[in-house]
Amino acid sequence: MESERLDVVPYLDRSSIVALDSAKGAEVHLGTVWPMLVAGRCRVVDSFCTQSRCYAVLRFGPLPRRAHCCLVQRNLELVERILLGDSQKLVSLELGLAASTVALIVARCLRALGLDCHASSVPVLVVMAVHAFRAADAPNEARRLDVDHDGARHTVISARRPDASLEHMLPGCECAVARLRVEGRSHAEIARLRQVSPRTVANQLTATFQKLRVSGRTDLLRELICRYARPAVAST
Description:
By secondary structure, this protein is an alpha+beta fold. The protein is about 50% helix and about 15% strand.
């Protein structure tokens, strides 16, 4: 995943990232991102979405020793199962662990990767990277841009959002709310952005999940990623 050019960005703001990625981003296989993260070579320091693409900013450098202790193979396999769509309840039953233990392991691993969030809110790009690493038919097209910022090396990874098909599957309001949830936004954040009550957001998401026959955001992402991949598979 080495690139030929290292750009210097004085302020690593999102608008600059989007512009530079569009102009100078080089093609990369999305499946190479997850192994790089779990090997402890870098951490996620920012993530966001535009209307068409999702982004993750990775900062390279040594991780704290405690972070490496979390990223052992057994823990990582558990995290991968959760991000690939298995419920924490199912994983805890199959492994004979308490649900609280599974949640704690996942939370510690995510923090070690730079992700201070619940498994249900992991950035879209990271979830797609796990799918691209583990599933041969998952979408793997992405772009990479290496930048220098604040004396450290950063890499921006971007990929096309997997949820464009929602526009053809849901009415306008439900689609807008679903896309915000895909981005990992909480009910409260969506309510604030949409200027509605959290209860309205919860009702709209419940209706959406029922229509799409999914159990939540992670399950929805798995379905969307599968839909994203089907046209490419069919054309080969």
